[in-house]
Amino acid sequence: GNSVTQMEGPVTLSEEAFLTINCTYTATGYPSLFWYVQYPGEGLQLLLKATKADDKGSNKGFEATYRKETTSFHLEKGSVQVSDSAVYFCALSENTGGFKTIFGAGTRLFVKA
Amino acid sequence: SQTIHQWPATLVQPVGSPLSLECTVEGTSNPNLYWYRQAAGRGLQLLFYSVGIGQISSEVPQNLSASRPQDRQFILSSKKLLLSDSGFYLCAWSVSFQETQYFGPGTRLLVL
């Protein structure tokens, strides 16, 4: 079946450090891939997405590239800020005769000033 | 623009009491609707989804139920709450299954 695997957290970085949060997936077809972010006490919100292989999603300095050959969608940011502290969820969504959206377990990021 | 509302924001209920959480969406028609639960420090668990009025699919058997009495209204219910029902409940909508999901602000439920 489909699955999403994220690196376990928490991840603690200093401000302006480089961020990578790994995400790999398994899917039977050609899913869309997403990164959602959840700030403390709030619901999730879309950070970025990619709908086909080699697409790069980007938003607010974050980037992720849909790599079909490695079944990965790693999230990166060149210089994190304290305000980036949140939980990040990788997800895939596939509609092949039924609803299949899978979320990863989430990775908590702490950014220190 | 579309908005999604959930209420209440916080709820403290005794074990064995009933539950009703409401979610409404504005600014779109015939959305897919979803209920998720997030236990403390954990990922998202899909509970129910709906593709139309009166159409509910359950992902996890449990003492919760869902209803969709109107196109943009989604209700999560329980007749008797368990301690294990505590968590953060999130409602979401999307245009279709493969599209972005838009989440509400969530309801934090504590069962004592």
Write the layout of secondary structure elements.
The complex is a heterodimer of chains A (113) and B (112).
Chain A: E1 3-6, E2 11-14, E3 19-21, E4 23-26, E5 32-38, E6 44-50, E7 56-59, E8 62-65, E9 75-77, E10 86-95, E11 99-103, E12 107-112
Parallel strand pairs in A: 2-12
Antiparallel strand pairs in A: 1-4, 3-9, 5-6, 5-10, 7-8, 8-9, 10-11, 10-12
Chain B: E1 3-7, E2 10-13, E3 19-26, E4 32-38, E5 44-52, E6 55-58, E7 64-70, E8 73-78, E9 87-94, E10 102-103, E11 107-111
Parallel strand pairs in B: 2-11
Antiparallel strand pairs in B: 1-3, 3-8, 4-5, 4-9, 5-6, 7-8, 9-10, 9-11
Summarize the structure.
The complex is a heterodimer of chains A (113) and B (112). Chain A has no helices and 12 strands.
Describe the biggest sheet of chain A?
6 strands, mixed
Secondary structural class of chain B: mainly beta
Note the total helix count of chain B: 0
Largest interface: A-B, 22 and 21 residues
Q: Rg of chain A to the nearest angstrom?
A: 14 Å
Strand content of chain B: over 45%
